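Need tokens for this chain, all 67 residues.
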Amino acid sequence: MRKYKINKDQSEKNPSKATIEKYKDFSKLSHEYDNYVKRHRRPIYKDKKLFFLLLLIILLAYLLSTM
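Here are the structure tokens for all 67 residues:
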């Protein structure tokens, strides 16, 4: 079993006024979060390899359904 050490002697670290003001604008903060977290993917119709793969799968499904 692990032994954990809790530091109760340290005082709380509060952010400075400048840091608080920086993150007060929620829409800007949300936009920055989305830029960091969400991947920017190209649409299927712009990605040639993925488009042709999808087209091939659709053609195979059509050929198999007509047999």
